[in-house]
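Researcher: We plan to redesign the surface later, but first we want a full-length starting point. Tokens attached.
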């Protein structure tokens, strides 16, 4: 048996006492013979081991992850409280038990298979993912690593397993994937909607041009109709006099003079109407002409401006155009016309509130060897810093209550920077008008996304 004794110095000794009874001839015990050993060092070593194991258990119990150690027979010799809690037991309850005692048959078989791989390969498996059910029947997902512990001879003595619960991370990844898909779908829908609105804005701008040109064409056509009606009446009167035989020289001279004047007015006004219609036809055709082709920038600018002039009169505006001759380009005439039209309509709508008079200037000139410069400016009310910063943003408008879509200048920016391969700069101050500089390459990029 073992017991403690206190020395005179106060130190405690552990003693191990073993004795055997010595019997006489009659079988009676007459004395005891035995040994008394000092096992203090042994006890201290055992206490140190126990304390180390207790400390190790405390440490691993603080880790929010699965930690366990098994022997070569795949029985648990150590398990932390986190893992024991998964199975609804105390860590000490797991000692000496196998995975089959704690897990489902499927989970135990997978775990034992990986433990045996460690014994066979004599090295760790590296991190891998694994699933098994807890005591509540919930499927748990884990990031696992298994490592061998070697004895003094280099043989595998233990297998250490560490596993992190990655279920929350997996759910987060799944939610992120769903959120990403939803965001991509929303962005795709937004782009489709934006494209539809931009196309609608283009058609609306074209419609405003049609209305303006129709109004302008009505003037020469109306005059021509009035002149033709008057000439018809004069001709009827002249014919009646001829049929009655009452034709006089004065009547003939008067009829000839009236006919000359009427013919001159008809030719002049009908030519004016034809020019307007031809100009509009060219602009409309160019808008639908998406292919790249050669054209004279000055001529095209004049054609576009001619279709814009009908909108000037009712707005009390003056439009000045200055084009450098012989500026040949290989680009997209339709989108260029759309740019000028949108800039003009934007200026008319925003730069001159309350019907105030004003001037719009367009200058077209060469800029270096390979570029052209278009300056579009007005002497209108100008823009504040906030408006200027957001002027080209889609759907930004200062006239939402009056039906503005906020796409006019965005379309300009999109066409210039994408289809035409250029750049633009906006300069404006409140009360000082607005100036937009556009730099375009004389040869547009071949592969640019449509606006």
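Model: Full-length starting sequence:
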């Amino acid at each position: 048996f073992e017991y403690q004794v206190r020395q005179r110095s106060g130190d405690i000794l552990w003693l191990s006492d073993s004795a055997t009874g010595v019997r006489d001839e009659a079988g009676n015990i007459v004395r005891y013979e035995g040994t008394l050993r000092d096992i203090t060092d042994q006890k201290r070593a055992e206490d140190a081991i126990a304390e180390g194991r207790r400390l190790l258990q405390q440490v691993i119990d603080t880790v929010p992850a699965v930690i366990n150690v098994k022997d070569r027979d795949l029985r648990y010799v150590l398990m932390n409280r986190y893992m024991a809690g998964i199975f609804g037991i105390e860590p000490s309850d797991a000692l000496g038990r196998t995975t089959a005692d704690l897990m489902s048959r499927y989970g135990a078989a997978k775990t034992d298979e990986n433990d045996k791989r460690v014994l066979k390969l004599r090295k760790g498996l590296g991190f891998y993912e694994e699933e098994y059910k807890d005591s509540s029947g919930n499927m748990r997902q884990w990031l696992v690593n298994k490592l061998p512990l070697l004895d003094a001879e280099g043989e595998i003595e233990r297998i250490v397993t560490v596993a992190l619960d990655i279920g929350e991370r997996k759910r987060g990844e799944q939610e992120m994937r769903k959120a990403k898909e939803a965001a991509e779908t929303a962005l795709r829908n937004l782009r489709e909607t934006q494209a539809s609105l931009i196309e609608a804005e283009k058609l609306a701008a074209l419609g405003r041009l049609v209305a303006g040109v129709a109004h302008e064409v009505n003037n020469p056509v109306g005059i021509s109709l009035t002149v033709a009606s008057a000439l018809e009446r004069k001709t009827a009167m002249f014919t009646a006099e001829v049929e009655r035989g009452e034709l006089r020289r004065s009547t003939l001279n008067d009829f000839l003079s009236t006919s000359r004047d009427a013919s001159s007015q008809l030719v002049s006004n009908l030519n004016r109407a034809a020019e307007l219609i031809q100009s509009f036809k060219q602009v409309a055709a160019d808008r639908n002409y998406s292919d790249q082709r050669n054209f004279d920038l000055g001529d095209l600018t004049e054609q576009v401006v001619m279709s814009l002039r009908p909108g000037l009169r009712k707005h009390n505006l003056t439009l000045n155009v200055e084009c450098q001759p012989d500026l040949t380009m290989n680009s997209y005439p339709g989108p260029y016309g759309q740019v000028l039209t949108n800039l003009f309509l934007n200026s008319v709508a925003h730069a001159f509130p309350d019907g105030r008079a004003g001037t719009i200037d367009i200058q077209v000139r060469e800029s270096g060897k390979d570029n052209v410069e278009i300056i579009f400016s007005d002497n209108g009310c100008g823009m504040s810093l906030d408006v200027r910063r957001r002027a080209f943003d889609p759907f930004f408008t200062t006239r939402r209550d009056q039906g503005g879509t906020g796409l006019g200048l965005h379309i300009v920016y999109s066409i210039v920077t994408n289809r035409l391969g250029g750049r633009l700069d906006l300069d404006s101050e409140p009360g000082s008008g607005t100036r937009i500089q556009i730099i375009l390459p004389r040869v547009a990029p071949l592969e640019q996304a449509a606006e």
